[in-house]
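Limitations
The structure tokens in this dataset are predictions for the assembled complex, not deposited experimental models. Users should treat interface geometry with appropriate caution, especially where small molecules or nucleic acid strands are included. An illustrative entry is reproduced here so readers can see what is and is not provided.
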Amino acid sequence: MPSLKDIKKRIGSVKNTQQITKAMKMVAAAKLRRAQDAAVAARPYAEKLQSVLSNLAAREEADAHPLLSQRGTSRALVVLMTADRGLCGGFNANVSKEAERFIRANEQGFDDIDLMIIGRKGRDFLKSRLGDKIVKVYENITTDATYKTAQLIGQEVVDAYSEEKYDAVFVLYNAFQSAIVQNVTLEQVLPIQPKEAEEGAEDSIDYIYEPDKAGVLSDILPKMVEVQFFRGLLESNASEQGARMSAMDSASRNASEMIGKLTLQYNRARQAAITKELMEIISGAESIK
Amino acid sequence: MADKLTLEMVTPYKKVLSEEVDEITAPGFVGELGLLPGHTPLLTTLKVGELSYKRGSEQFHVAVNWGYLEVADDKVTVLVDTAEKADEIDLKRAEAALGRAEDALKTLSEEDKQFKVMEAALERALIRIQVAGKK
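Predicted assembly:
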């Protein structure tokens, strides 16, 4: 049986922890709002670009541009997006595990699969398991991701693809659904697979292209890759904040539960001590009689 | 046929504009581009430049930076990397950027990788200043 003093100390330390988790929850909630707004604001651009592209691709042969052509599946690159910081529940582990699973499952299909990691936690997780596959790690870019960042990554990937270093590029990230739900999502970035244009509505339009179809296409395709990375970064960031918020929320709740239990234990111990003292006094008084 | 154009302008960060306008002038890849209601479907890349549009008798100017313009059914969609309306432009910053770019260009040779970058920066700064002067 721990002494009164011990229990009191423990209550104090749990309270301290709870204060920290509560503060972290608030911070995450504020950041989540911003991240969510950014993700939502980026959507129209991506959607417009997508619709322009599918319009364009519907009129072009599949091999019109290197970024569109399928050329077998010998080398692949997986771009994994994780967070730089922990304490956000299963956020990092889920997506990292999925990366490992994907690579193991497709080892036969591809001659080689390389891994590019964004975020420190993903590297920590996979360093020991798939260390030889990691070709590049980016850190500290997920919070406050700008379009510039996505552009750099996009260009790097497009360059590597154009030099035929890779034949397929995938991106793996936590898509934001709500503050509590994140979906681990795998998307193929390259070769680009334009979504089918919606039937009827728009494919009757025959555009005039300036400078020409090929020119527009070769301009728009790399942009598409950048946009996909940008979107992935924003979604991943929003998911991270959401995951952290809910993780910290349950941590705070666990802490208050624990405080309740400890307080009960403390009061019991106190009562027992009082009873014991009373008994001693009474029996002492009895013996004097 | 509608007698107005619907202009929508989006950047990766947000939707900048969504308005009914009468006339649009855009910096197309092959040259200045004037758009009126009833224009043929068109898809073009845009250069760094000034996009202006008219609503009634009012004229508005926006500095845009690389993108696409799509015309279909009197709907004009502009996708650009950045778009700044004339009254949003920070003239001091643009002038500072201009100075930086000019200095850098003096020291660089044309083969330098950085040359193109600075040249583009110079162009952007010039356009910004030009647009800002028109508010």
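Some entries come with short summary sentences. For this one: Chain A has a mean pLDDT of 85.
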